[in-house]
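G., the chain you wanted modeled:
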Amino acid sequence: MADQPDAGAPRQKVERVAGSRRARLTPVPGTDTDPERVVREPQRSKGPKGPNDDRLIQDVPPHY
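Predicted structure as tokens:
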């Protein structure tokens, strides 16, 4: 098998988290641990603006 990990390479370690059911892995050396943030702008209609468009954009459905 060609995909064998190098025996001398640093590995991730499993860390226990007090009060949690899940464990956490240490970050891989040489990686960025900050997640990427995707900024999305609200979609606007391309037609003319109606009298109640601002109200409809601000309203949140009751199941949110």
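The radius of gyration is 24 Å.

Shout if anything looks off.
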